[in-house]
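Researcher: I'd like a candidate sequence for this fold, 328 residues long. If you have to choose between options at a position, lean toward the conservative one.
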């Protein structure tokens, strides 16, 4: 049996009952016990790890953008929606700037669940069109924070995926860390809500050095960690997936990064654009948010950090944003 608990206020949920966030303090939850062993629904996970010699040395590229809906989010969504089905939910809701919503809509369509996705007005038009094509109800709100509040309002009747606070979603993402070979020592991770970074930390059982990559527009970890390297601009609009001002798991992420011996890297639009173009020319069709990992590797190298053999998490597919990528 399993239950969800809150490390911040001490809340303990009922056994076998799902909570998307702490009902007492609104914080991120943790899982006690074990969830049912769910299988792969659409082939998510087990993504390729490709090593290439680059001008930075040999780097590994974990191709998370080859997951069914085009992002690593499928790992957490698959487990979340299988649980939703087993608990008898008929509808799901998620707030997202794109990839989490697309993942939710994809798996909801497969399982026959109604999906409502709350998106900020700034979300890329291409991703909103994908959501509608998947049959989701798309609700546009002025800001990401308002999108989250809207989703919370539906959580009393629909299963709220809540990728930034849900312990169930995080449990699914752990598989990304479990797939890393034993000889991997450093991982560079684009980070907004920190589900991937913390999933890798837990799945790899703390054996890898973590480098969190954030955009210069919203470097939430900079409240806790001094960046090892910083880009040359104050804007990171190209990285739409990193446009999150405050993440509930930021303190935990900062601790994980620090304890791993890694650090924070803050990148900006000039580096992101260059990295995106270079990745595509190498055969990796990553979106700009994913390309922040390669941009960070370059900045780390310039700062004197050895990145030889590091694994870069290419988190999302650039084909969803081809109109943007083609103009870089």
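Model: Candidate sequence:
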């Amino acid at each position: 049996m399993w239950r969800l608990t809150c490390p911040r206020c001490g809340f303990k949920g009922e056994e076998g009952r799902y909570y998307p966030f702490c009902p007492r303090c609104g914080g991120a939850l943790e899982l006690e016990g074990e969830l049912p062993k769910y299988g792969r629904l659409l082939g998510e996970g087990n993504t390729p790890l490709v090593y290439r010699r680059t001008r930075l040395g040999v780097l590994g590229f974990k191709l998370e953008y080859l997951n069914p809906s085009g992002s690593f989010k499928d790992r957490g969504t698959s487990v979340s929606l299988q649980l939703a089905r087993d608990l008898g939910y008929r509808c799901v809701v998620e707030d997202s700037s794109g990839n989490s919503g697309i993942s939710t809509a994809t798996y909801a369509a497969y399982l026959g669940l109604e999906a409502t996705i709350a998106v900020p007005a700034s979300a890329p038009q291409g991703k909103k069109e994908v959501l509608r094509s998947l049959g989701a109800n798309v609700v546009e709100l002025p800001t990401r924070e308002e999108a989250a509040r809207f989703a919370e309002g539906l959580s009393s009747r629909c299963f709220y995926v809540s990728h930034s606070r849900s312990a169930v979603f995080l449990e699914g993402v752990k598989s990304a860390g479990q797939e890393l070979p034993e000889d991997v020592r450093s991982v560079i991770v684009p980070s907004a809500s920190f589900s991937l970074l913390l999933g890798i930390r837990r799945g790899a059982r703390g054996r890898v050095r973590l480098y969190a990559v954030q955009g210069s527009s919203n470097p939430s970890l900079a409240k806790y960690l001094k960046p090892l390297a910083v880009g040359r601009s104050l804007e990171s609009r190209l990285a739409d997936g990193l446009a999150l001002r405050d993440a509930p798991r930021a303190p935990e992420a900062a601790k994980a990064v620090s304890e791993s011996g890694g650090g924070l890297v803050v990148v900006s639009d000039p580096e992101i654009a260059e990295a995106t173009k270079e990745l595509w020319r190498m055969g990796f069709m990553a979106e700009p948010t994913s390309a922040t990992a390669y941009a960070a590797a370059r900045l780390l190298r310039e700062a004197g950090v050895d990145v030889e053999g590091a694994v870069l998490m290419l988190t999302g597919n650039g084909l969803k944003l081809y109109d943007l990528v083609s103009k870089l």
